Amino acid sequence: MKRLKVRLVKSLIDEKEEHKRTARALGLRRVGAEREHADTPVIRGMIFQIRHLVEVEEL
């Protein structure tokens, strides 16, 4: 299964509470934080929701 590396590149300050919770659920707590996740539709949906805050790299 493919993996995705997700990096938070913008601050969560002044973002909607829903976006903050999504970032936290992905394991992204501060700017520059990186996490690897399996490439599943659920993870892709979460990334799509906060796509303006993160960078994604396929591994």
From TrEMBL:
Q: Which GO terms describe its biological process?
A: translation
Gene3D superfamilies assigned: Ribosomal protein L30, ferredoxin-like fold domain (3.30.1390.20)
State a single Gene Ontology molecular function.
structural constituent of ribosome
Q: Do you know which InterPro entries this protein is assigned to?
A: Ribo_uL30_ferredoxin-like_sf, Ribosomal_uL30_bac-type, Ribosomal_uL30_ferredoxin-like
What GO cellular component is one of the record's annotations?
cytosolic large ribosomal subunit
Keyword Cell membrane attached: no
Q: Which residues form the Large ribosomal subunit protein uL30-like ferredoxin-like fold domain?
A: 4-54
Q: Where are the transmembrane segments?
A: none
Keywords noted in UniProt: Ribonucleoprotein, Ribosomal protein
What is the protein's quaternary organization?
Answer: Part of the 50S ribosomal subunit.
- Family per similarity comment: Belongs to the universal ribosomal protein uL30 family.
**Under what name is this protein listed?**
50S ribosomal protein L30
Organism for this UniProt entry: candidate division WOR-3 bacterium
